[in-house]
Amino acid sequence: MSFSFQHSERPFLIAEMSGNHNHSLDRALKIVEAAAEAGADAIKLQTYTADTLTIDKSDGEFFISDPHSLWQGKSLYELYQKAYTPWEWQAEIFAHAQKCGILCFSTPFDATAVDFLEGLHVPFYKLASFENVDLPLVRRIAQTGKPIIASTGMASVAELDDLVRTARENGCQDLTLLKCTSSYPATPAGTNLRTIPHMRDLFHCNVGLSDHTLGIGAAVASIALGATVIEKHFTLSRAEGGVDAAFSMEPQEFAQLVRECRTAYEALGEVAYGPQEQEKGSLAYRRSLYVVADVKKGEMFTEKNMRIIRPGLGLPPKYYDVLLGKKAAHDIARGTAMTWDMLK
Predict the structure, then answer these.
(1) Do residues 148 and 141 lie in contact, with contact meaning Cβ atoms separated by under 8 Å?
(2) Side-chain half-sphere CA neighbours of 39 within 13 A
(3) Of the candidates 223, 248, 268, which is a domain's last residue?
(4) Which of 80, 168, 231, 234 could form a disulfide with 50 if both were Cys (CB 3.0 to 4.6 A apart)?
(5) Are 296 and 312 in contact (CB under 8 A)?
């Protein structure tokens, strides 16, 4: 399947399933259906196992002790065992997405995952923030020749330069960088959307937002700054739990996101001055110069018999001072729009 982000005509909206299937294939398929119904362009999976991400060790740096983490009290291995999407499900999920009319793709976390996804004919790839410094993985993904969406969480400019150079030198011709704050949830104040146009100009590529904030405000605002791809975590119900449920959108919220992002994109339009086509009917209701009391031939125009009022069919208000003191060329009835041939 050939796909390109280079000439996107509207924001591309991705629903990230992550581990919100709660280890139920039936729930995973229902998430696909709900994402399609909400208007998502694509559903995203993650392709890894606990063993491809880390080792089975539950102390020291392999244990999540950060009290601010949603996953505090688990080892990395335990978390990834809980969150991973079984590989044997993924062909069925891909096929179900196609049936529902949306694209399905995934984030590979090592070379074996890339090989697996190539077998599923994935249309493009996602590189996760935590893997954006894994240049061998970047190289392997790029060598497929398919588009890459890369989250930029935590990455310095130098690290992003490494990523971009590695991707392009290994065959990637369609790269999209997503501004991302790798905290869960992220705060609006820590999102720094102004980075989006700077990143686009710095690396000469498409840009977007991988958004972990709550709500739709940050995502909609990013459209005005040039974002062409928006990714949000997605679940059927936060109340039903899941590893990422706390910062995931429910279907009705994602549908609102779709509507508002597309409205924001449509509203960008182009640089335009003067009356727009839809405004032309309103020109008649501007203010203009009118005779507001009967005027006899030879009588002067004064503040009492000439005013700036609506509608807008008379001479423009800028001529008010010019006309004051001039004499009427003929009798003029109250309520007549001022014209130049009224002057003596």
Answers:
(1) yes
(2) 16
(3) 268
(4) 80
(5) no
Q: How far apart are CA 323 and CA 309, in angstroms?
A: 15
Distance CA 241, CA 180 (A): 23
How confident is residue 8, by pLDDT bands cut at 50, 70 and 90?
low
92 within a domain of the structure (yes/no)? yes
- Mean pLDDT value across the chain: 95
Kindly give, in sequence order, each residue whose CB lies less than 8 Å from that of residue 153, ignoring residues fewer than 6 positions away: 129, 130, 132, 180, 181, 182, 210
Question: Do the beta carbons of residue 72 and residue 79 sit within 8 Å?
Answer: no
Q: Is 5 a domain residue?
A: no
- Alpha carbon of residue 6 to chain centroid: 15
pLDDT tier for residue 276 given thresholds of 50, 70 and 90 = very high
What does DSSP say about strands 306-309 and 336-337: parallel, antiparallel, or unpaired? unpaired
Q: Give Cβ neighbours of residue 329 (< 8 Å, ≥ 6 apart).
A: 297, 341, 342, 343, 344
Tokens encoding 276: 């727009």
Question: What distance lies between CA 18 and its chain's CA centroid?
Answer: 19
pLDDT of 1 over the 60 cut: no
CB 176 within 8 A of CB 184: no
Q: Is the peptide bond before 316 cis (omega within 30 degrees of 0)?
A: no
Task: Give the pLDDT confidence score for residue 7 in this predicted structure.
Answer: 67
The token duo for 260 is 């508002």
The pTM (predicted TM-score) of the whole model is 0.89
42 and 170, same domain (yes or no): yes
Between CA 128 and CA 3 the distance in angstroms is: 20
71 has a pLDDT exceeding 90? no
Decide if 217 contacts 188 (C-beta within 8 A): yes
Long-range contacts of 250-257 (CB under 8 A, 24+ apart): 251/34, 251/35, 251/37, 251/38, 252/38, 253/215, 253/216, 254/13, 254/15, 254/35, 254/38, 254/39, 254/40, 255/37, 255/38, 255/39, 256/216, 257/13, 257/216, 257/219, 257/220, 257/230, 257/232
Residue 246 belongs to what domain range?
12-48+84-268
**Same domain flag for 283 and 208:** no
Residues 6+ apart with CB under 8 A from 309: 287, 288, 290, 292
